[in-house]
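Researcher: Please generate the 3D structure of the following complex. Treat every line as part of one assembly.
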Amino acid sequence: DIQMTQSPSSLSASVGDRVTITCRASQSISYYLNWYQQKPGKAPKLLIYAASNLQSGVPSRFSGSGSGTEFTLTISSLQPEDFATYYCQQSYRPPRTFGQGTMVEIK
Amino acid sequence: QVQLVQSGSELKKPGASVKVSCKASGYTLTSYVMNWVRQAPGQGLEWMGWINTNTGNPTYAQGFTGRFVFSLDTSVSTAYLQISSLKADDTAVYYCARGEAVAGAFDIWGQGTMVTVSS
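Model: Done. Output below.
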């Protein structure tokens, strides 16, 4: 199985900060990497698909990059509604493994 | 609009069975695969597997074979997850999620169904 490792596991940031989350795959997954946001008590929401494509309706402050084994999710200017847990997921082959999540908290 | 609506919370005793439904609206169920994802309390997301909504053929992730069954009723645009011989560690929120065709991302999610297993 392809293992997905996110870093950091959690971070504290202020409104307006630039935030970067990294996701590493245990083997090359080309660009088959997706990012989700989950708020407490809610279903996950797709933010970025295929490494760098913004899902419809997602604010442009979110961006994704990378290919192969290393990927990043960047929030250019953190907003109050962005405090949540973020997960990466590979869709290169089954099982569709997720990273362990990165919790973004208010500093 | 495109949405997946799941059945409500369940409280079950160990050894019982539960069937969670996931009704698709705003699109044709058979046009996309349906994934199932588990989230234990305070934990991350775990892919359970998917069902090919054209053929009805399910694929189960390791750890979700035997007691877990994915099924469909295309006449009512609904996917189902059935879990038998429930154990306490099956307590979790279960999500259905549509798999989009281009990159396999999960673009539409149900609201989740909390299954609690307790004596």
